[in-house]
Amino acid sequence: MLKWQTKEGYKRLLKDLVSIPSITHHDGELFMAEHLHHTLSSLDYFTKHPDYVRHHPLPDGRKLITAFVQNDPSIKETIILLSHFDVVSVEDFGEWKHLAFRPEELTAKIIENKELLHTFVQDDLNRGEWLFGRGIMDMKAGVALHMSMIEKATTGHFKGNVLMISVPDEEVHSEGMLAGVSVLRQLQEEYDIKYITCFNGEPSFTKYPGDTSSYMYTGSTGKILPGFLCYGKETHVGEPLAGMNGNVMAAEITRELEWNVDYVEKFREEATPVPTNLIQKDLKDHYSVQIPHAAVTLFNLMLFNRSLSDITDMLISSAKSAALRLEDRLFERSKNVSKIVPFTPKKEKIKVLTFNELYEHAVTKYGQEELDRRENMLQTNNPNADERELTIQYVFELASLCRDISPMIVLFYTPPFYPAVCSSDHPLIKATSDEVVNHAKNTFNSELVNVHYFSGLSDLSYIGFHGDSRDLSSFTSNFPLLGSRYHIPFDDMRELDIPVINIGPLGKDAHQWTERLEINKVMDETHPLIIFAMETLFDQAKNQI
User: Fold this and answer.
1) How far separated are the first and last CA of the chain, in Å rounded?
2) Handedness of CA 109, 114, 118, 123 (dihedral sign)
3) Helix (H) or strand (E) holding 528
4) How confident is the model at residue 208 (pLDDT cuts 50, 70, 90)?
């Protein structure tokens, strides 16, 4: 008897999944992996094929889960169902955080206190059957839908194989999927199968308050996190013109990049957001009357098609523009002061360089062995440090060693990195997405909108990579932690190179205490639409062979 194909069965499964507090980097992630393995193993198919549902450990002990259904060994075509089971923390629930993982009780409490809600939330409650809870839309609902698809696959419904992979740690660094890429490669060889599509189940995000549209995504936005270490010159506050303030340097970089439309990319009717600052601070660790001569500023930068080498060139160009303005301003201010206090102003030159150029200069001065020693010591002494902070400290240490070339602005990259991926023009995805849109209209009278890039960032970013060696080198050579504390499996990503599509449930307010899901729409529309999309993918794959 099938358990997860009806509204009530799906609802029970979903509430069961939400009840596990699988917050990223907490014990709940471990419990969730065990629970998924146990629940999937209860299906008759897996009692007969127990080795087809598996744990796969990450280096830190967490686990991702795979479940494989193959009804005919002669069929190679396989759809990957991708999901993540971690969720963000619950501090935003305030006094109700003890209810964050108890959907029925939380929903009842919210209904009792409707007057606290925004009118958009109240309107939703008046129109449908909504369940509230942390992770219920992002993305336990998608996990439950994929488990339902696995169950349906065990009946022989689909004309191909289905492989579910559900991972931890999507919400922080996507460490689950970064490990999952090699797992997918291994399973592909072991099962002797051909992946035709990676089908993600991230929710359909509203674009504005009151948005009632449903979205299908055929790609995922990329993201990089560039930083600038601004190393000026020390001086006493009584003689500020004799040095260069790192805070002023960082502020000028931020002024150059914040809201800079030159970095906006367009793809048809879609566009990336303008860059925005995420971290800006000086690097003094105590109060003194020495100016803060070193500071750092980091930016969120979203990508579509622009190459990594072009991005690096643009960032260096922006830093040089900021440096020229700083040089001119300091010189002009010095000339003004010289009219009051007689001295001869000197125009300062600010060097702009990449981390790799700084590193090469340091190697020339101190030798490779010394730099390796310092990096190992920094990492050993800070095993639990935030990757961004560790990167900043390492770049700062190298700049301090090379202060003979200061003042300087150093470009570097820090985790996380999400490559952009888009399959809108892939023949299989284009044919399938057209049919899915028409089916949604004709069957459910629903206007399903095809979006080329999922804007919320997703693990689909790691399903393929198309950058050439020069392009990649301009990025990786300026990424201090890459290969030591942070790993990206570029080779496996290139080998996979699978087209992608994302169809998930319509939810509201991800990462907010009003996160919610409309159960009727999930089972009346999304569930059958995913079945139709998978059927179409298999049919189209056969037609295009």
Assistant:
1) 35
2) positive
3) helix 527-544
4) confident
In sequence order, the 6+-apart residues with CB closer than 8 A to the CB of 407 are 230, 231, 232, 233, 244, 249, 348, 350, 351
Pair of tokens at residue 416: 């996380």
Amino acid at 435: E
- DSSP secondary structure string for all residues of 303-336: ESS--HHHHHHHHHHHHHHHHHHHHHHHHHHHHH
d(CA 155, CA 2): 9
pLDDT value at residue 545:
62
Strand ranges inside 98-200, DSSP E: 130-132, 161-167, 194-200
Q: What is each CA distance from 69 to 17, 43, 80, 138, 191, in whole angstroms? A: 22, 11, 11, 25, 11
The enclosing H or E element of 450 equals: strand 448-451
**How large is the average pLDDT for residues 499-527?**
94
Q: Quick one: which H or E segment has residue 227?
A: strand 222-231
What is the side-by-side order of every strand in the sheet holding 516-518? 130-132, 516-518, 507-508
Measured CA to CA in angstroms, residue 414 lies from 74, 246, 394, 396, 463 at distances of 45, 20, 11, 14, 21
Task: Determine what percent of the chain falls in helix, strand and coil, rounding each to the nearest 5.
Answer: 45, 20, 30
Compute the mean pLDDT over every residue in the chain, rounded to the nearest whole number. Answer: 94
CA distances 483 to 101, 333, 489, Å, are 37, 45, 10
**Ranges of H-type helices in 130-234:** 141-153, 175-191
Distances (CA, A) of 20 to 107, 137, 384: 17, 14, 25
**Percentage of residues in the chain having pLDDT higher than 70:** 100
Q: What is the pLDDT of residues 10-32, one digit of tens each?
A: 999 999 999 999 999 999 999 99
Helices (H), 222-307: 246-257
117-131 pLDDT, tens digit each: 888 899 888 888 899
